[in-house]
């Protein structure tokens, strides 16, 4: 598996399931270098208030991330590039981190955010960047971050693929 997968199950709310109201369970399965991460939420219809249900169909569509683990990207403004190693469907960091970004360049929270093995002219590091600020890195220069060899393999076409480490 090379990108997150969303699994959704539904139930009728019968006594056998232990739920008195209809319910659904959603789970994101994320590949990562050390294991398959699984996060699951169970919600009953009683948990959803009418004010939480949105009727704007376009916004309800699940947004697909533009980049996947192994993709090479660069920042559209600042001089750094990196390799995606994880994706958040929307902002998933601290408010302190978010508010430290100057307001005039602060990205929207309702978009994918990417964890990068990043590098600039001087150093390598880890970065967290919004989709609106990334573009594909089409340079021929190989990324030099030291963690790339630990987290990725290179396939026959030269693309980076997350390693699957068995426990």
Q: How does this model look, in words?
A:
The chain has three helices and ten strands, in the order βββαββαβββαββ. The radius of gyration is 19 Å and the shape is globular. It folds into two domains: 45 residues, no CATH class; 91 residues, SH3 type barrels, CATH 2.30.30. The strands form three sheets. It has a five-stranded antiparallel β-sheet with strand order 7-6-5-4-8, with no helix packed on it. Strands 1-2-3 form a three-stranded antiparallel β-sheet, with no helix packed on it. Strands 9-10 form a two-stranded antiparallel sheet. The N terminus is likely disordered. The longest helix is centred in the middle third of the chain and has 5 residues. It has 167 residues and is mostly beta strands.
Nutshell version of this structure?
The protein is mostly beta strands and 167 residues long. It folds into two domains: 5-49, no CATH class; 72-162, SH3 type barrels, CATH 2.30.30. It has three helices and ten strands; from the N terminus they run βββαββαβββαββ.
Tell me the layout of helices and strands.
Layout: E1 5-11, E2 23-31, E3 36-44, H1 57-60, E4 72-75, E5 81-88, H2 95-99, E6 113-119, E7 124-130, E8 134-136, H3 148-151, E9 152-154, E10 160-162
Antiparallel strand pairs: 1-2, 2-3, 4-5, 4-8, 5-6, 6-7, 9-10
